[in-house]
Amino acid sequence: MIYKHDVLVVGAGLAGMRAAIEAHNQGVDVAIVSKVYPVRSHSNAAQGGINAALGEGDTWESHGYDTVKGSDYLGDQDAIEILAREAPAAVLELEHWGVNFSRDETGHLGTRNFGGASQARTFFVADITGQALLQVMFEQLVRVGVRMYNEWFVTRLIESEGVVRGIVGMDIRSGQLHAIQANAVVLATGGMGRVFEPSTNALINTGDGMAIAYQAGARLMDMEMMQYHPTTLKGSGALLTEGARGEGAYLLNSEGDRFMKKYAPNKLELASRDVVSRAEQTEINEGRGIDNCVLLDCRHLGRDLIMRKLGQIHELALELAGVDIVQDPVPVRPGFHYPMGGIKTDVDGKTTLDGLYAAGECACVSIHGGNRLGANSLLDTVIFGRRAGAAASEHSRALPSPADSFPLGEAALQQETDRIRALLDRPYVGELAAKVRWDMGVNMVKHCGVFREAGGLTEMGDVLHSLQDRATRVHVGDKGRVFNTNLTSVLELQFMLDLAVAVQVTALTRTESRGAHTRTDYPDRDDEHWLKHIQLQYRPEGPEIHFTPVTMTRWEPQVRSY
Amino acid sequence: MDVQLKVRRQNPEAEGEPYWKEYALAVPDHFTLLDALIQVREEVDETLSLRCSCRSHICGSCSMRVNGHANLACKTKLSDLHTDTVTVEPMGNMPVIKDLVVDLEPFWKKLYSIDPYLQPAGEVPDREYVVPADSMLHLDGVVNCIMCGACVSDCESLSVNPIFIGPTAFAKEYRFVMDPRDAADTQRLMQMNGPGGVWDCTHCYQCVEVCPKDVAPMERIMAMRKMLVDDGVAEKHNGARRQKAFTDIVGRYGRLDETRYLMKSVTMLELAGYAKVGLRSMTHGKLPPLLPHRIPDAARIRRIFERTRSTHRRRFKLHQQAQEGSRV
């Protein structure tokens, strides 16, 4: 089948749904396609909150400065200004739509502290903020009545001469391939955490949108900037919110020391994430860890506060690690969490390809630069989701009907049908997608982790080369069409390998330490040479590297300490 | 740790009939059922289909029946099950698509049927709606619902009464009825008083038992029944009449008096329908006594009833406050 819409949104997390609602409000025919049902999206895993300078005495400039400093001056300041200025309205819109944000005793919105922030400006719903926002966004999507293609797996973009015209996707339930043609496509497919092992991310976070955009010719940016979250649970790697430290929890080493006083004497546990993760890894590397972990101590917060504000992490620690955080400190370590990099866009979500937009975690505006502040990602999704939805609608209105591009959709559909058939027909030679992914993930954490250096990164290049070769022989054991998750896992593997290469190449290229990118062989920030973005253009023989300047408006780079 | 998984499988592209397949695995002690199923899918049998994503109880993808009861596979620690064989089946009350994957479309349609979005009244304020902190905190318990479907899977009422709107949708409905900002509570209460509504719940506690997020849907349903009675919406409804008759009689005599219960809870026309049963009961010596037995110390029971009645929280609604304000 070939379907047609003015605007097609790919991904139904917060950014995608916000984009679709905006397009609907702009009066265009919009649909949303997602490989899972909308409420299953990974936005629900965000626990801590959403930032906005709404409180008395707080200013957007303060929020903006904290974000710029958090980004280690790699964030583009025009975009950060928009983020900080629009944040109050975005949070109030969510409140008006029904998010049950925590209140203070006067019935007004309450806040909590968060890392890297000079004010308590994080609005929250217990430790289920993402879940609460996602539910409400879905409610609004249902209210306005956007057409949903749920459990559809997008395999590629339809693109010709730099213009994007839609997607080819597989209805997972039937296994049938279809094309959806559109005047504009908004990618909001979220993160790529599965490139790393372990990771806090859901199994669906395989970077599909980033990869299909990259393969179609859109540029990726800041791909060396990968965030390791300081408090992921020992064993399962599940996320324990920064909100715990925001509420006052300590980090301790094996000697019982609050070691953050050494690394961030002012902000201690609430320094930005790159700083805390580096500190933890240093403690562990220098022998003051416990089983490759440090301890997160919530005991002094008391049962009442823990159950009221940190109920979910209490449940996770208990169920997954057998630790009751009311009674005992819980072992945590830095774990892969979030890519600051992604599909390069302008402040309206426009990518380097005509007709292609991106927003949320898959995009790189760049507001997070070298390091994202906690509680800025939920904000990113709603602000830039809305802007991308608006810009895509405007783009669509200026174009004739997508029916003009009919033959293009049919050709792409045929190519994908043939490609999938060939995949299913591949003989078994002992190579499994899960094994290749595992080898990629473990090596990525090893060589592109909290600390990096030229030798390991070069070795990673060789590892990826051999993994890409192995991936061409990966077998699909399930020959059926209905709900064939084996087939989708093989398609995802190819996406992830391209992104892994992007991370490795940019990490090797940037010979300085900035934000989350720490090179032990180049330990200092080097503003003279490296106050610039690295962009990648896909080429079959390997990524083509470009450099672009960082946009500065009002904040000059300074020494960064917390 | 050795574990034996007995998985109910079904492939619509083959014969389509369900069958059992067993997998013997050696897994680490900390493994969840989801970890084990992923190991099967990745290393043993790639044809096994299931939904899963977050691995940390928040996305709601991996609910299935484990040893007969619905739960999230990612929340089921194998070492806690204490059974040699772990039986794994798709959720109940939903058609199977393949293996552990069920058709959720009817589930979503029921959710959509309750208009699941905030419907405030009046002007949107410049800032946030100002509401008591407690009222927002109270919603956390229901906002916790991740739409995993476990409650619907094991709902006894749904298994015999497919039109029942069901525990997930009613937990969502409660979220709006109790939200001070929502002004559609009258319409919402009218709707839940109708066919498939809250009176169709059989009070079996299955949904409370299986909910992995402690949402306690049945308790929300019971709270809304009470609102229906208190607001007078449900006066003519059989379920409401029965509930009222039951509480009146037990509150007064300390025990149920079946004869009075019948007289008070059905219409005269319906009562006629019971004549035959009544006669047969009488001839078999099963007719309850015509005069009620009061238990000793019935006053204590009455006090319990009064206390629960007085602790029932009055709902705080912004739109009602605004109306009351404008009258002054």
Average pLDDT confidence of chain B is: 91
Helix and strand string of chain B, N-terminal first? EEHEEEEEHHHHHHHHHHHHHH
Specify the overall morphology of chain B.
globular
CATH superfamily of one domain in chain B: Alpha-helical ferredoxin
Summing up helix and strand content along with how strands pair, one would put the structural category of chain B as: alpha+beta
Give a quick account of the main beta sheet of chain A: strands, pairing sense, barrel closure: 7 strands, mixed
CATH topology of one domain in chain B: Fumarate Reductase Iron-sulfur Protein, Chain B, domain 2
Instruction: Output the number of helix runs of chain A.
Output: 16
- Could you tell me how far the N terminus lies from the C terminus of chain A, measured between alpha carbons in angstroms? 56 Å
Report on the architecture of this protein.
- The complex is a heterodimer of chains A (562) and B (328).
- Chain A has 562 residues and is an alpha/beta fold.
- Chain A has helices at 14-25, 60-70, 77-97, 129-144, 208-216, 243-246, 260-263, 273-285, 302-309, 311-321, 377-397, 406-425, 433-447, 454-471, 485-509, 527-530, and strands at 2-10, 30-34, 50-51, 111-112, 122-123, 147-150, 152-160, 163-171, 176-187, 220-221, 226-233, 250-252, 294-297, 330-339, 342-344, 356-358, 363-364, 451-452, 518-519, 532-537, 544-549.
- Chain A is globular and about 65 Å long.
- In chain A, a hairpin with a 4-residue loop joins strand 8 and strand 9 (176-187).
- In chain A, strands 1, 2, 6, 7, 8, 9 and 16 form a seven-stranded mixed beta sheet that branches. Chain A has a five-stranded mixed beta sheet with strand order 17-15-10-20-21. A four-stranded antiparallel beta sheet of chain A has the order 11-14-13-12.
- The longest helix of chain A has 25 residues, at 485-509.
- With 328 residues, chain B is α+β, with helices and mostly antiparallel strands.
- Among the domains of chain B are: 2-102, Roll (Ubiquitin-like (UB roll)), CATH 3.10.20.30; 127-237 and 318-327, Fumarate Reductase Iron-sulfur Protein, Chain B, domain 2.
- Helices cover 43% and strands 10% of the residues of chain B.
- Chain B has 15 helices and seven strands.
- In chain B, the strands form two sheets. A five-stranded mixed beta sheet of chain B has the order 2-1-5-3-4. Chain B has a two-stranded antiparallel sheet with strand order 6-7.
- In chain B, a hairpin with a 2-residue loop joins strand 3 (63-66) and strand 4 (69-72).
- In chain B, helix 2 runs parallel beside helix 6 (167-177), helix 6 packs across helix 9 (217-230) and helix 10 (238-253) packs across helix 14.
- The mean pLDDT of chain B is 91.
- At the A-B interface, helix 3, helix 4 and helix 10 of A face helix 1 and helix 3 of B.
